[in-house]
Write a structure and sequence with these properties.
The complex is a heterodimer of chains A (about 625) and B (about 350). By secondary structure, chain A is α/β, with parallel strands linked by helices. Chain A has four domains: about 220 residues, 3-Layer(aba) Sandwich (Rossmann fold); about 60 residues, Alpha-Beta Plaits (2-Layer Sandwich), CATH 3.30.70; about 210 residues, 3-Layer(aba) Sandwich (Rossmann fold), CATH 3.40.50; about 70 residues, Alpha-Beta Plaits (2-Layer Sandwich). Helix content of chain A is about 35%, strand content about 25%. Chain A is built from 20 helices and 27 strands. In chain A, β1 and β2 form a beta hairpin. The two termini of chain A are about 50 Å apart. The mean pLDDT of chain A is about 90. Chain B has about 350 residues and is an alpha/beta fold. In chain B, α3 links the parallel β1 and β2. About 0% of the residues of chain B have low confidence. Chain B folds into two domains: about 230 residues, no CATH class; about 100 residues, abc type-2 transporter like domain (abc type-2 transporter like fold), CATH 3.40.1710.10. Classes of the chains: A alpha/beta (about 625), B alpha/beta (about 350). At the A-B interface, β5 and α3 of A face α1 and α8 of B.
């Protein structure tokens, strides 16, 4: 009997008006780590809730341990075998109870007897490193610790199936790796894990994946199967990346310009033209393993965006557009930003990268003058922040400052009038750019009816109506799919290169940072590193070497062995990621006594960079 | 379950204060602030007669009671009119020319102008004056040697001194106990819905009745504590003399708390945010408890529709029980039917809860 089986599952809300899941079929085998990947609103949460019998589905077939969850009475005993962790940091915890009391409550809820409870509690809290914090109220833990406690709580009754809705979203990369390690160790004991994530780079960590979009499965299968394609993926570096980028569109609809690096999928039949282009333009192309984003983008296809000359910012800003000097921001005894300094050059795309609670939003609000820094100074366009300076800034907030009940055009006119731009000027701007932003069809529609990706572009445009030379974006792309995301970044890139607009952007998506010229890595209020993503990876490579994935039957033992040999490692599903300056082959590893099936080169990710920067201070 | 709730509550200082302070302050504000009695009404006198009789009436009306207070004497209608309009006086006694002469002919008439901006107050003032006049008439009639066929001698039973404050205090207790436990328990479940921790319960195999009983008991425990504080205020601060048995009083109050707690739980089935649940519960408990239970308007003066509504509201029965116990020391046999009604209400509400609480989202 499979833990979960689903055929043509359909879930709707508001009496069928909103379709969350639209004909989804999948099956989870015992011992799987099954990963659902997809942007916000793809239907992941709804599917999980239906699997746990918390939400009724409309039609199709769904069986959890062979029982239909819609059958309330019959499903009640099945709940003993399941644990569900809802989306959001520590959502299922009781914030005022201590760590230990939370675990005890869950034990009571599932009727775990006292002796068993004490034994298991100690084991769980010790493996997660929460034992020493057991008297602390859950509300006072960091995001990563809360998620670990949530896991302990739902593991107290030894469920057979763990259903985890985005357990790692917004968690710092170090805690994220710990959470995965914990999951692997339970999986090793035979527990099945069903998990969702909005991070593409977590796809590889499961044994099985399903990429979801608009309630449907785009692709599914084992990671290695899914990313197998009869096309090649290249990373391209060149002295003129923009020219190369423009030319590549002629042979492919997949080029992505990330910083100075271009990533592109080249089909077999286009290989010849690609080689010609390479000779003509003289760029260097390194073949890389395709990843899930490549697969998705190749399937859907990107669109090229060309900005019309409509955003020429009125006042020019000096070379040092934004200067932050030793800024400290304290809230009571809590230090949210701890002595951060950096400067952003005119026309640069600068990323603030870090997990939830790292201090990104506090920092951006301090720069904007919404908070007064406890100490340190901020200069925008060479001046301290005041009312006049604020007019130079376009700000797009985390939740998009749009009025849901107004139409797109009404929103834009409203934001224009806030900055003293008369409606006719806004309308003439909109008529010039609406086709580029792909908003033509939506101008008369209410914002509340729009999909997330469209809302995001409306929010961007509303931050741009007064032609500011500086643009601040707070988590602009959370929850949109890679295609929408690329369109968004093409717009940002255009604003920066064509009009010299300076862009400051925050994000907790590690891979997103690759679109930035430079990034500041933040953790717990401190700056961990500041450089271009490319240089950060290069620095990582020169200290730890290249990355390899070791395929093995016993990942835990393999990892332990590798560690004992002095390698830096990380667990990736049933694979082990190893960093080594010497080239590694399977033969070489076997000679060292490491069990392995195969070794493949892997990519160094921003997460790798982040983890080692944080751990090595 | 109960232990967890109470522990959480004790940790949360703000909630704790709210839970204990709100009923307390309601009790004090309503108990002290809501005066249904009208005393010391400022009146003016416009005496065109200036006779012995007119002065006699004025002095009898004012010196002898706490109801009226003479503020000013006017010399013209305009002056009196201005004083009423400006709210300086609430009524004006107008004695026409030759009032005493007419009176002697058996045709004495004087006018009483009442400020009608607040009808309830106007009514009460009118009844005071009427009562006064008829009493005087009776006395006069006897003086003149008429034998009266029926003599009325009024004595207020049960609340001998007719202390309106006692009635208000007891009524407030009922209203507060209708509102506070309901609001508190409504938030108990909705709070979990809002934070997402409700999924723990949805996904666990804990029974519905077990969960609901847990919530009921934790809401009940807190309210029980409140009950004792409120009873303390009633007896020691408002000094309401309780004639009936304290044990019965506490028993019916406990029963009533159970009813309003389960009502609150029931409400939480329909809301998913704390703000909405709070407003919903307040509206659904405050309005009926105040309007339809005899707290302000006597039940006997309601029309049929209102009377029917009143019988659907548990507070109505509890109010009746309370008044019977506190003021009348009514024997058990008279209390049994209202008590049973409350029990039925509780069972009904709790089974509705059980029916409506679904361990899933839709």
């Amino acid at each position: 009997m499979k833990p979960v089986e689903s055929e043509n599952l359909r879930i709707t809300y508001r009496k069928g008006k909103t379709v969350a899941v639209d004909g989804l079929s999948f099956s989870v085998d015992r011992g799987d780590i099954f990963v659902f990947i997809g942007p916000d609103g793809a239907g992941k949460s709804s599917t999980f809730k239906a699997v746990c019998g918390v939400l009724s589905y409309d039609s199709g077939k769904l069986l959890t341990f062979g029982v239909d969850p819609n059958n309330e009475r019959a499903f009640e005993p099945v709940k003993e075998k399941i644990s569900f962790m809802p989306q959001g940091l520590g959502q299922n915890l009781y914030k005022r109870l201590s760590v230990e009391e939370n675990v005890d409550f869950f034990a009571d809820l599932y009727g775990v007897d006292k002796e068993e409870r004490e034994k298991r509690k100690e084991f769980l809290l010790k493996t997660t490193g929460l034992w020493e914090f057991r008297d602390r109220p859950a509300g006072k833990l960091s995001g990563g610790m809360m998620q670990k406690l949530s896991l302990c709580c739902i593991l107290i009754h030894k469920p057979e199936l763990l259903v985890l809705d985005e357990p790692t979203t917004g968690v710092d990369p170090v805690s994220r790796r710990e959470i995965w390690r914990l999951l692997y160790s339970f999986n090793r004991e035979g527990q099945t894990v069903l998990l969702s994530t909005s991070y593409m780079d977590e796809a590889e960590r499961g044994t099985e994946l399903l990429l979801m979009k608009n309630g449907k499965a785009e692709v599914s299968g084992a990671y290695e199967e899914v990313v197998k394609m009869d096309a090649e993926v290249f990373l391209i570096t060149s002295k003129n990346p923009f020219t190369v980028y423009e030319e590549l569109w002629k042979i492919s609809d997949t080029p992505r310009l990330k910083g100075d690096i271009i990533r592109v999928v080249v089909e077999r039949k286009k290989k010849k033209e690609f080689e010609e282009l390479r000779r003509k333009l003289g760029f260097s192309a390194t073949p890389v393993e395709p990843d899930l984003e490549d697969v998705f983008i190749r399937k859907v296809g990107l669109r090229k965006v060309e900005l019309p000359p409509a955003f020429k910012p009125r006042p020019a800003v000096p070379e040092d557009a934004v200067v932050v000097e030793k800024v400290v921001k304290k809230f009571g005894s809590f230090t949210a930003v701890d002595g951060v300094s950096f400067s952003v050059k005119r026309g640069e795309i600068f990323g603030l990268l870090g997990p939830n609670g790292a201090g990104k939003t506090t920092l951006i609000k301090t720069i904007l003058g919404l908070y007064r820094p406890t100490s340190g100074r901020v200069f925008i366009a060479g001046k301290p922040v005041n009312r006049e300076v604020k007019k130079l800034i376009g700000y797009m907030s985390q939740k998009f400052s749009l009025y849901q009940d107004l139409t797109v055009l009404e929103n834009l006119i409203y934001w224009g009038s806030v900055y003293g731009i008369p409606p006719f000027r806004v309308k003439s701007l909109v008529s010039k750019v609406s086709s580029v932003f792909e908003l033509d069809r939506f101008l008369g529609r209410r914002v509340s009816e729009l999909p997330l990706g469209i809302k995001q572009r409306v929010a961007l445009l509303s931050a741009l109506v007064h032609a500011p030379p500086l643009l601040f974006l707070d988590e602009p792309t959370s929850g949109v799919d890679p295609v929408e995301r690329d369109i968004f970044w093409q717009l940002i890139r255009g604003l920066s290169t064509k009009f010299g607009i300076t862009v400051l952007v925050t994000t907790h998506y590690m891979d997103e940072s690759e679109y930035c010229d430079r990034v500041l890595l933040m953790n717990r209020g401190r700056a961990v590193a500041i450089d271009s993503p490319w240089n950060l990876k290069k620095a990582f490579r020169s200290s730890y070497g290249d990355a390899y994935l070791v395929y093995t039957a016993n990942p835990f033992e393999t990892e332990e062995k590798l560690r004992s040999l002095g390698f830096k490692t990380a667990l990736f599903g049933r694979k082990v990621k190893v960093y080594s300056k010497e080239p590694i082959t399977d033969g070489y590893l076997r000679k060292l006594g490491v069990q392995c099936i195969a070794v493949k080169p892997a990519q160094i990710t921003m997460e790798d960079v982040f983890v080692y920067r944080v751990q090595n201070g | 379950m109960v232990r967890k709730e109470l522990r959480e509550l004790l940790r949360d200082k703000i909630s704790l204060i709210t839970v204990l302070l709100v009923p307390l302050s309601m009790m004090l504000v309503f108990g002290y602030g809501l005066k249904l009695e009208i005393k010391h009404v400022p009146v003016g006198v416009l005496d065109f007669d200036k006779s012995y009789l007119s002065r006699e009436i004025v002095s009898k009306l004012t010196s002898n009671s706490e109801y009226f207070l003479v503020r000013s004497y006017f010399s013209s209608i305009e002056e009196a009119d201005r004083a009423i309009s400006s709210g300086k006086v609430r009524g004006v006694l107008v004695f026409p020319f030759n009032f005493e002469g007419d009176f002697k002919e058996g045709n004495g008439k004087f006018q009483f102008l009442i400020d009608g901006t607040f009808p309830y107050r106007a009514e009460v003032i009118k009844s005071y004056v009427n009562g006064f006049i008829s009493r005087e008439n009776l006395l006069l009639a006897e003086e003149r040697g008429f034998a009266l066929p029926v003599k009325v001698k009024t004595r207020y039973w049960f609340n001998e001194s007719l202390n309106q404050d006692y009635v208000v205090a007891v009524g407030t207790l009922a209203v507060v106990l209708a509102i506070a436990p309901a609001v508190f328990s409504a938030l108990l479940i909705v709070k979990e819905k809002e934070s997402g921790s409700i999924y723990n319960v949805y996904v666990s195999s804990i029974g519905k009745s077990e969960y609901l009983l847990g919530k009921l008991l934790s809401g009940f425990t807190v309210s029980l504590f409140n009950l004792f504080i409120l009873l303390g205020i009633l007896v020691f601060l408002f000094k309401v003399p309780v004639k009936g048995s304290f044990i019965i009083l506490i028993f019916v109050s406990v029963l009533f708390i159970l009813v309003s707690t389960s009502f609150g739980l029931l409400i939480s089935a329909f809301f998913s945010s704390q703000a909405a649940a709070f407003i919903g519960t307040v509206v659904l408990t405050v309005v009926p408890s105040i309007l339809y239970t005899g707290y302000i308007t006597p039940v006997s003066s309601m029309d049929k529709g209102a009377l029917l509504t009143a019988h659907l509201i548990p507070t109505f029965y509890y109010m009746r029980l309370l008044k019977s116990i506190v003021f009348k020391a009514a024997p058990l046999s008279l209390l049994i039917s209202d008590t049973l009604t409350l029990i039925v209400f509780f069972l009904l509400l709790f089974s509705l809860n059980h029916m409506l609480f679904k361990k899933r989202e839709k």
